[in-house]
Amino acid sequence: MYFFLNNLALSDLCYTSTVTPKLVTDLLAESNMISYTSCMAQLFAMHFFGGIEIFILTAMAYDRYVAICKPLHYTIIMNRQRCYTIVTASCTGAFLHSFFQCLLTINLPFCGPNEIDHYFCDVYPLLKLACTDTYQVGILVVANSGMMGLVTFVVLVLSYLLILYTIRAYPAESRTKALSTCSSHITVVVLFFVPVLFIYIRPTTTFPEDKVFALFYTIIAPMFNPLIYTFRNVEMKSALRKVWCQKLCFIGRQII
């Protein structure tokens, strides 16, 4: 679990770094200009790290399923080599998804005024600027981003339904412990996937609410992930208490 949490934290950091610095700079400088090359780079990086996050969240659901439903085989099934393979496959899948996403938009003809109704470069706002019929491209975007998000979300839901089905016969204390272990992951999945599905599962249309929903999966969800996993995990809370107690004791000794 902690191996995947490390990778999730890294992908969160990289993911928000593709959007937040540019957004803050534009707000402070009161400038909202971005070059075409930078726009395409932001589009690729955002979908690449976002894809990694989606696949790692799916891997974490599988990890919880094995830990709860097959505890005696957990160390054999989720060995270190398999964990590395899952993360490598996640990066590869995210790269292919992002490459295909950029391929759909990079050859589109754009004509002025090139003003994106968004705070970062994304596919649908760019399609709105194209000087050509983008219906087929929009369908491909739904097939690429929308279906990827939908399929992984269905897999996540099925994994937790299997967990609930398995623990129904467990004692009450064991059920509570299992649900407590999964609750943080379910919270993160809902915060991330619901806005993503709202944006990408529909045809090529944009709404004013899109920017609000995009805030959830680009900034808010990655920002709250460490807090959610920290405060919902007993071991993490215990470790934090020890660290803070050691620091307070050290400061107390220095004052004395």
TrEMBL record:
Q: What keywords would UniProt list here?
A: Cell membrane, G-protein coupled receptor, Membrane, Olfaction, Receptor, Sensory transduction, Transducer, Transmembrane, Transmembrane helix
**InterPro entries in alphabetical order:** GPCR_Rhodpsn, GPCR_Rhodpsn_7TM, Olfact_rcpt, Olfactory_Receptors
Gene Ontology MF terms: G protein-coupled receptor activity; olfactory receptor activity
What is the protein's name according to its record?
Answer: Olfactory receptor
Where does it primarily localize?
membrane
Q: Member of which family?
A: Belongs to the G-protein coupled receptor 1 family.
* Membrane protein topology class: Multi-pass membrane protein
The source's domain of life comes to: Eukaryota
Kindly indicate whether the keyword Membrane belongs to this entry.
Answer: yes
Membrane as a keyword?
yes
Where is the protein found, in the record's own terms?
A: Cell membrane
Concerning Gene3D superfamilies, the annotation shows: Rhodopsin 7-helix transmembrane proteins (1.20.1070.10)
SUPFAM superfamilies given for it?
Family A G protein-coupled receptor-like (SSF81321)
Q: Which residues belong to any copy of the G-protein coupled receptors family 1 profile domain?
A: 1-229
